[in-house]
Each structure stands twice: as C-alpha cells, then as structure tokens.
Write a structure and sequence with these properties.
mainly alpha, two-stranded antiparallel ribbon, 21 helices, 2 strands, elongated
C-alpha cells in the first residue's frame, strides 16, 4: 500500500474514534434526552436541523426546530439563535399581514424558550436575551408602543447598570417619539429620564459618556423639559409633600438638566438643601443666584460648599468663584482676599490672578492721584501673569485690558517729580492694597 493510502486509512481511523467518542458523550449527556435512545434520536434530529438550516431550507428546518424545543430544549443555544434567524427570514417573506404576525409571535416564543432554558447563562443569559427580544419587537412591531415600552423596561430592569447604553438610547428615542405624538405624558417621560440617567452615571465608561451625550440631546429635543412645563408639573406635588427629599432631588435634577435658572429652581434647591445639605447642591444654588445677580446668597452657598471641599484644585476654583461674586457685589477687598487664597492653594490658577488684578483696580478708587495710579502697576503684573496660564479662549480681550491698565500708569513727569526711575522697584500703598511692583512710566 502506498504511503498516501496509509495516511488516508489513519485519518479515517481517527475520525471513527472521534465520532465514537462524541457518540458516547451525547449518549451520557442528559441535555439530549432522558434515555440513551432519546438522546440518540434527538442528536439525529439536531443534525437534520443543522443541515436544513445550512442549506437555507427554512420551511424544512422549522419542523426539526419544533421537535428540538419540545424534546431537547437544553441541548444548545444554537437551536434558538438559528431559530430566530429562520423566523426573521420567514417574516420578510410573509405574504400577508396575518402570516407576518404569526411569524413574529413565533420569533418572540423562540426568545421566551431561550430564556426558559438558558436564562442562567453567564454572559448571554436572561438580560442579554430580553434585550435582543425587545430590539426585535421594535423592528417588527413598531405600532405596538405599549408592548415596546413594556419589553424595554423589562430588559433594562433585568440588566440594571449593565444595560447596553445604545439600547438605553433606543428605548428613550421611543419615549421621545411617543411624547411628541401625544402617546405618553410628560410626567412619564421625565420619570423614565430620571431612571435612565442614573444608569448612565453609574460605572461610567467612555462608551457610556458618549452615549449619554446622545441621551441628553434626546431629552432636550423632546420639549418635555421646558422650564414652564417642569414648574407646572412639580409645583403642586412639592406643595403637597414639601419634605419629600426624593421628589425635591428629582425635580432639581430635571430643572438643572433643562438649564432652568428660575425662581422655582432656586426655591426647590433651597428646600432640598435645608433637608439634605451637600456640596453639589450648594454649588448649584450658588450658580443660580449668581445668574440672578443675587451675589449675597451666591456667596453664602459658595462658602458652605468650600467648607466641605478637600480637593485643592476644586477648592481653589471655589475661592475664585467667591472672588467673582464679591466683585459682583462691589466688595473688592473681600474679592481680593479670596483670590489670594486661591493663589495660595493653587499658584497655577490663572483666573485667581486675573480676579485679583480686577479687585485691585476697583479698590484703587479708595485712593487718589499717584497712589491710585500706582495700583495699576500691581494689577498689570497680575494680569500679565494670568495671561501665561489661561487658554486661548480666555485670553480674548486680554490685550485690550492690559492696554487700559497702561493708560492709567503715572506719567513720566509724575515719576520724575517723585524721583522714581523707570524699572525701579516700588512698594504700592493704597488703603488695603499693598505690594511690591516695578515703576513703569506712562504717557
């Protein structure tokens, strides 16, 4: 016998041994049936099923699929994966609406049977299958809005924070469309928004961050989150249960998401803060009162926020915000104090130097003549330093502001009269403002 023939014989022997080992394995595997005879028969049916499916004989494969789901439903997940593919094909080829709906029902049954038999799978279990089922239902039953919502909610409830972010957006798009078509109320849409946004914010990943941008854009586009709508919806609820922290938290979150800087938002925020104080709520209130030009109240909440802050960079930024509020209230000395505190905490905070410069120029009004003009030397130093730390966006107008400071420098004659040479060191003393700077002759 030739060498090639020997190789062929050896291969056939190996194949025979392998087939025998597989046969022995399935004869002992209860997934294929209760007895060896049943298992042997069911494996035969499985082979027929795979052959007809691979040959795209979907009508023929259906009879084997039904037998497998009845006699060996736990044999393999591939039964249900291929079964779903079969019915998707049959749906596309349906010749009547009645036939199409019958095939859709069969497709949904495939998913139910898969959950029943493989719902405990480690990675493709109940939650995974429910999401697939919901996606299919959206595709094939777009008119059944109630059914779509129910299936999506069931899948999301099962998956929780592990829900696919794209699927969350698919579901929310359904809700937005329904709201625009008057199929659901604003209250329902906003309740679902509150549930879903927590899923985006828990265990955040780059994928979730990107998906959340789409989610927030959908919410804004819905029109449900208008400030007037939110107040109309939640004011009576809060009046009925004014100490309900969950309701206040929910309402404040929606108002902030809608960028509603209104009296109602501030009212809700203060109620919530009184019951459940936190740094984040204090900051939200401070921003709202700043927008309303109520700087005293803004300062109150900024101070409360800063008292509880431990991160140096965040604390420095809070000091900068307080400095800005103080300037808005024409309290230049207090503004300078907080700006200096920000610099002490974070010497690279350009906004702190910029605000300190502005505080000095406002405070210079407490003096007159040369003493007032010399303050602009100090302010120029600070603003120049700030310009080396700020990004391009925040440098807009910086040259003009520096030029306005130079325009206020003491004149050459004034410096000469006081015996001050250009470039010499000079200590500024103007009311509460002091510091060492450099003599610069003005025009």
């Amino acid at each position: 016998m030739k060498r090639l023939d020997l190789k062929l014989v050896f291969a056939l022997v190996l194949a025979s041994l392998s087939a025998g080992a597989f046969a022995q394995a399935y004869l002992e595997d209860p997934r294929y049936g209760a007895t060896p005879e049943e298992r042997k028969q069911n494996v035969l049916i499985l082979n027929f099923f795979n052959d007809t499916y691979n040959n795209k004989n979907y009508d023929g494969a259906v009879q084997y699929l039904q037998q497998l789901m009845e006699k060996a439903p736990k044999a393999t997940q591939n039964i249900y994966i291929k079964g779903a593919d079969i019915y998707r094909n049959k749906i596309l080829r349906a010749t009547s609406l009645q036939q199409k709906n019958m095939f859709i029902d069969s497709l949904m049954l495939i998913y139910d049977k898969r959950i029943e038999n493989f719902g405990d799978h480690a990675t493709r279990g109940k939650g995974y299958i429910l999401e697939l089922k919901a996606r299919e239902y959206i595709t094939y039953k777009p008119a059944d809005r109630e059914g779509i919502i129910k299936l999506c909610q069931t899948a999301i409830e099962e998956n929780g924070v592990d829900s696919d972010p794209d699927f969350l957006n698919i579901y929310f798009q359904v809700l937005v469309d329904d709201y625009k078509n008057d199929n659901i109320e604003a209250d329902f849409l906003m309740n679902e928004y509150q549930k879903l946004v927590k899923l985006f914010d828990t265990n955040s990943t780059p994928e979730k961050v990107e998906a959340k941008k789409i989610f927030e854009a959908l919410f804004v586009s819905s029109g449900a989150a208008s400030c007037e709508n939110l107040e109309k919806l939640f004011r009576p609820k809060i009046a009925a249960t004014p100490n309900d922290t969950a309701l206040l938290d929910k309402t404040l979150g929606l108002l902030m998401a809608g960028n509603c800087i209104t009296d109602f938002q501030l009212e809700v925020g203060e109620k919530f803060y009184a019951l459940k104080p936190s740094s984040s709520t204090a900051l939200a209130l401070a921003a709202g009162f700043e927008e309303k030009k109520q700087f005293d109240k803004a300062l109150k909440y900024l101070n409360e926020a800063i008292a509880n802050e431990t991160d140096p960079a965040t604390k420095a930024n809070l000091c900068v915000r307080i400095a800005g509020s103080q300037l808005g209230s024409n309290r230049a000395q207090e503004a300078a104090r907080f700006a200096r505190e920000a610099i002490d905490i974070d010497p690279e905070n350009g906004f702190a130097y910029m605000l300190l410069a502005q505080a000095y120029t406002v405070g210079s009004n407490a003096c007159s003549g040369f003493d007032r003009q010399s303050v602009y030397w100090l302010a120029y130093d600070l603003l120049s330093k700030a310009s080396t730390m700020l990004d391009e966006e925040h440098l807009k107008g910086m040259d003009e502001q520096l030029a306005s400071y130079r325009a206020n420098f003491p004149s050459k004659e004034e410096c000469f009269f006081r015996g001050l040479n250009n470039g010499a060191s000079y200590t500024v003393r103007c009311s509460w403002i002091s510091g060492t700077t450099t003599v610069r002759e003005g025009q």
